[in-house]
């Protein structure tokens, strides 16, 4: 006949209560205490082993997160390359604008009547330069946002590392206190 879990629990409770009394009467209590200490030490070692495994898993998760961050940096680099290509296109456009200015200069020398039209074109180019400056300002703001995000991420990682170290040190202190 198999014992139920409740029966086993009651037997354990009875043994825990009665065994020290019997051993004290027989003079074997110190051996039991040593045995209990050994059992506790084994439990603490098992718990430390489990903690080590949890820390190892945490470090693996952090490594995965770093890999994700690296991928994001690669994406950002790709975006920067796209921005560089756009700047190259803008430079080509500026070269075209310069060629147009040369033509305008020739026309200006030849035809004084179109002077006002050329002046209007210069104003348009100035507006384009202002638009490009505004774009540069927007890009600078984006860089600042990225920098702030990276600083915040670094700060969070630093706090997490301090917390992990503190937790590990606390567990070590508790183990030392229990062993003493």
Q: Could you give the topology of this structure?
A:
Blueprint: H1 5-26, H2 29-110, H3 115-179
Helix pairs in contact: 2-3
Strand runs, count: 0
Mean pLDDT across residues: 83
Which structural class fits the helix and strand makeup?
A: mainly alpha
- Provide the succession of SSEs: HHH
Largest sheet: none
Distance between the termini: 44 Å
The Rg value, from CA coordinates, equals 38 Å
**Number of helical segments?**
3
Shape type: rod-shaped
**Poorly predicted sequence stretches spanning 5 or more consecutive residues:** none
Total domain count = 1
> Strand share of the residues?
under 5%
How would you classify the quaternary structure? Answer: single chain
Helix share of residues? Answer: over 70%
Report on this model:
The chain has one domain. 94% of the residues lie in helices and 0% in strands. The two termini are 44 Å apart. With 180 residues, the protein is an all-alpha fold.
List keywords for this structure.
single chain, 180 residues, mainly alpha, rod-shaped
Brief write-up:
This protein is an all-alpha fold and 180 residues long.
